Amino acid sequence: MATLVPYNRLETLRRAFDPFGDFFQEPVELSNLSDAHTFKMNVEDKDTSYEVTAELAGVKREDIDVELNEGRLSIAVTKQESEEDKHKNYLYKETSSWSATRGVYLKDAATQGLSARLANGVLTITVPKQQEKANVTKVSID
After folding, report:
1. How many Cβ atoms are within 10 Å of 68's Cβ, its own excluded?
2. What is the rounded CA–CA span in Å between residue 64 and residue 60?
3. Which pTM does this prediction carry?
4. Residue ranges per domain, the chain?
5. What is the pLDDT of residues 88-136, one digit of tens each?
6. Sheet of 49-55: strands edge to edge?
7. What are the E-state strand segments in the chain?
8. Residue 52 in contact with residue 104, Cβ under 8 Å?
9. Residues near 132 by Cβ (< 8 Å), separated by ≥ 6?
10. Half-sphere exposure of 19 toward its Cβ, with a 13 Å CA cutoff?
11. CATH of segment(s) 49-81+98-131
């Protein structure tokens, strides 16, 4: 009986001596490869404007920075752990301080008339479109 090892300990020992065993035997989920601290974002073309939505559950308005710079819309989030939370005696804790930035290029985005609202953990940004300017100028040759 002294040579018997509980199953969970055997699994721990197996992993200690064969760290790549699971890698080649189990399928890889691509969703788990990305950073855990990011947010989902959708961009919808609504003919005269774009509607960008970002899922930001638990994030306060003051922790979000939205910027449009030469057609690139950036959403930056910095969530800080409060001083009150730092002094609590957690047995298990998955929330922490984190930051993430997502962006999208909208080539015909207008800088006037932008609007954003945060409701029920979803940030919705409306970006009006402008008439596309011709980037090519014909030059006559003398």
Report:
1. 15
2. 7
3. 0.65
4. 49-81+98-131
5. 888 887 777 889 999 999 989 999 999 999 999 999 999 999 886 666 7
6. 41-45, 49-55, 122-128, 115-119
7. 41-45, 49-55, 64-69, 72-79, 98-105, 115-119, 122-128
8. yes
9. 107, 108
10. 1
11. 2.60.40.790
